[in-house]
Each structure stands twice: as structure tokens, then as C-alpha cells.
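Run folding on both entries below.
>entry_1
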Amino acid sequence: MAIHIPRGWELPESAATAEALVLNRRAAMLGAGVGLLAPGLARAQGAAPTEAAGMMAPPINGKYPPGRPTTPEREATTYNNFYEFGTDKGIYRPAQALPTRPWRVKVDGLVEAPREFDMDDLLKLMPLEQRVYRHRCVEAWSMVVPWTGFQLSALLAQVKPLSRAKYVRFESAALPGVMPGLRQSWYPWPYIEGCTIEEAANELSFMVVGAYGKELPKQMGAPLRVHFPWKYGFKHGKSLVKISLTDQRPKGLWEAIQASEYGFWANVNPEVSHPRWSQASERVLGSGERVPTLMWNGYGEQVAGLYTGLTRERLFA
């Protein structure tokens, strides 16, 4: 079957409106700056008043235009999945109990120089930038968010992966005192996700520490999450406390629960349906319109080559 791999900027004409064109031009020019207009919302949602708050608006990297308007901040920050805090989309309220300082992240496994980073020290060490990325949930909704962060490869360079390292495993925090969702014992906590070492080295793989020019909201995975814009959102581990390099393929929480619906690769593909719904289109947060989903979420130019020769792998589950 021939698969057309669109470039990151491609968007069907039917999905655009005159207003969207105007907003998209604004998004391309301003990027993450649009979020600076709502400081009151950030305070209400628990943005920590730390020294790091002044580091969340570094230079904008315009190399990856999203091709769609930036999602309004209020929409993106009040419609979230974070099962450690509950199963509904309104978890931004209980998530404010999450303590994000002090916070330490251990990077270990098959590396020459394992380290444990204090979060504020990590912010000073890493080359921060802003990127406006598409985000596509496996539930067939999407948004465009201006993230602040750094390439995953920059973090891994600090610990020097060994040649035997084939995968990267991400482990999220599990804090029973503040995360009521952990009482749902049928989930195999803590939340685990993973990728290959080649995916981790890709230029798009991004460690997120902020959004909309401010510190990352707690409900979006503060203080540190990973983002793979060509993969479904469940692959993006939140509130990370440990990153391990290994020679064994990690099994994510959702894959452990139902591998037939949530596989290891989870690359966005409109031609492969979820067993219970179509992935051909998506509902855009903010506008509510339904638009066609793009192969690789529109990032095929950067990532399609990662999967050459993997004909036996179930890449899109």
C-alpha cells in the first residue's frame, strides 16, 4: 500500500478558514509569546514562583512550523490526561497538589556517567528554546502548544550512552499522598513509557519544562515531561523522575494493560484505526472543528526514515 508522507507544513485546504490563516500567521510570528497575556491563569493553575519562571521564554526555534493556529492557553491547560490525578479531563484542579520543588531526575542504566540532576540545575545546564508543536491524542483530539524545553539528545549527551543501549525508559513520579489516581490499583503504576535510542536521538524529541512562555503547568506534567510530536500523546511521559537507558524494550503502562490497542511505537497514522474508533480525523481543541489527521502527525520529513525496514513491526498502534 502506497503511503503519502506529507511534509510538516502541509494542511488540506478544507481544514482552513480565513480566520485560521490570520491566526496561523500570528502563531508563526509570535510562537510561544501568545501565552504571556494571561499571567493570572498561570497563577490560578499553580505555576511555581521559582527562579526558573524567568527562563521559560528563550528564543523561538521556527524550524518546525505547526501549520495550524496555536491552541488558546485556557483550552490546552484545562483539558488534560494525567491518570495519576484521575480519569476525567478536569484533573487540572487536583493536580495543583503536585509538589514540583525540590525535584530530582535520575538518568542511569547503560551509560558511562550516570547522574541525578536537580531540576533547577538542569534548567541552567540545558540549551533551552521554544518550539510550537502539534499534539495528537490517541483519543482523536489535538492541540498546538508552544513548549519550552531542550532536545532529549542534549540530556543524553551528559551521561554518554553505551553502545549496548538500545532503548530509553521513562518513569513518572508516583506520589500516593497527592495523586489520588494511584488508588486505582489495577493500573500497573508507576507510569512507564519508552522509545528506541534512535528515536531519542531524533531532532524532534523534546524534553518539556514550560508552555506558553511560563513554567509547565502541573496538570501538563510539571516539572519535566517528554514530547514526541509524531507519536500519540500517551507516549509522552509526565512528571519524570527517572530516565534509564537499557537493552530491553520498555513496556508502557497502556501497553501492559491492553497491547492490542496501545503498542510500543504508537506513531500517528490516519489510515490505521484504533480498535474502537477511527484515526482518520481529529477534533481541534479551542475551535472544535474536525480536521483530517496527517501521517506522522505532519512530521514525516523528520521521522519517516527511523522506520525503514521495520515491515514486521506494528508501528501505528
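>entry_2
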Amino acid sequence: MIRKFVLVLLFSFVMPSIMQAQLSLGSVAPEIRLPDSLGKWKPLSEVKSKLILIDFWAAWCYPCVRSMPDLKRLYANYHDKGLEIYAVSLDKDYRNWVATCQRLNLPFIHVNDAYSLDGKACHDYHINDIPNRMLIKDGKIIGAEMSLYDLEKLIQQELK
């Protein structure tokens, strides 16, 4: 009886997270249509660039904010060569999100999903935690679940 209970618990908690793993490489990147800080809609499909790095983050997330200088460096080094960063904030606190973007002087595209991890973008991309990044080329995911170092190597390779 206890063995069955343990198996039921295992499948009810572990299996959904396995089934919700990030989209696989080669998958078509789902559309994201979210507002920027001025309320203007910025659909992912309207971003015209060779490579798009989608960054799921939040201003309250220390590891996310700590990685922003590295993202700014990637942007500075590769934007003119064809990289765009599409930062999807999961902040519910609009003022803190905008203030953090301004304080950090973040130069890339920013949109916000106040539904956070329960929002459509996170569901479509199977995002369960942040920071979380995916690299897109020609509408398909070519990089996911990678360190910034490995993402940069892939960006260098793709922008040759």
C-alpha cells in the first residue's frame, strides 16, 4: 500500500515537470505578444534579426539581474552583426521592473507578462524557472538550457 502511494506521489510530482521540459532544439518558436513598458505590443514575430535571444527574467530575481551585465556585453558585441535580445519580464510589480531596466540601462527589447510563470509565454515555452534563455534562428530554437558562455559560442558560430 505504501509502495503504491509513493509511486502515485512520484508520478504526480515528477512526471509533469518531465513532460514540461523546455521545447526541444529545432522546434518552432511560439509567438510571444506582450506589451512593453509603454503598453505598446511588441510581438516576437516582428523582431527582424538573424538571431534572437529570448531571456525570461524578473527584476526580483537576483541571478537574473546579476546576469544582465553579461547580456549587455553580448548585445554590444553582436547586435550590429545580427543579434537581438527579447527580454520577457515576469514581474508583477510594473514600477520595479521599469525602474530596474532604467537603473541597469538595458538596451534591448523589453516586454512584460504580469502573469509570471503562469503566463502564456511561459506555458508555450515550457518555462518553469528563471533565468531561462533560448536562442532562435529562422523561427526555430537552436539553443536552450545553455550557460551564457555556451550561448556566446553558439552566437559566434551562427554569426560568422
